[in-house]
Amino acid sequence: MSTEQITAEVAVVTDENFAREVLEQELPVLVDFWAEWCPPCRMIAPVLGEIAREKTGEFLIRKLDADENPLTAREYKVLSMPTLILFRNGVPVRTIVGARPKVRLLAELNAALSE
């Protein structure tokens, strides 16, 4: 998956801008920790794009290439890809490991957001 394929709704974050783009946001932020070599990461990317468009104003979605940004991946103990971490007020509140169908992923996110 190239950067060109990432939609405008799903912005790329790095070790350098993670705090500003994720931890300091008012809205909850779902971060997709992914890697170029990961087939399930490519499978979930279009699903995340759809969710980002559908849930505009409810939460943000960001992508972080774990291979290119090892400091953040290590800090949040990301060992498998894809790993999705939902942050609220700068705090991780839910971790989802592995690709999911859209319906199941939305159900998990909605449950976490309603807690």
UniProtKB/TrEMBL annotation:
Keywords: Disulfide bond, Electron transport, Redox-active center, Transport
Occurrences of domain Thioredoxin (ranges): 2-114
Xref: Pfam families: Thioredoxin
Gene3D superfamilies recorded: Glutaredoxin
Coiled-coil ranges per UniProt: none
The organism's place on the tree of life at top rank: Bacteria
Function (record text): Participates in various redox reactions through the reversible oxidation of its active center dithiol to a disulfide and catalyzes dithiol-disulfide exchange reactions.
Family: Belongs to the thioredoxin family.
PANTHER family: GEO12009P1
Protein name: Thioredoxin
Origin species: Nocardia acididurans
Upper lineage: Bacteria, Bacillati, Actinomycetota, Actinomycetes, Mycobacteriales
Gene: trxA
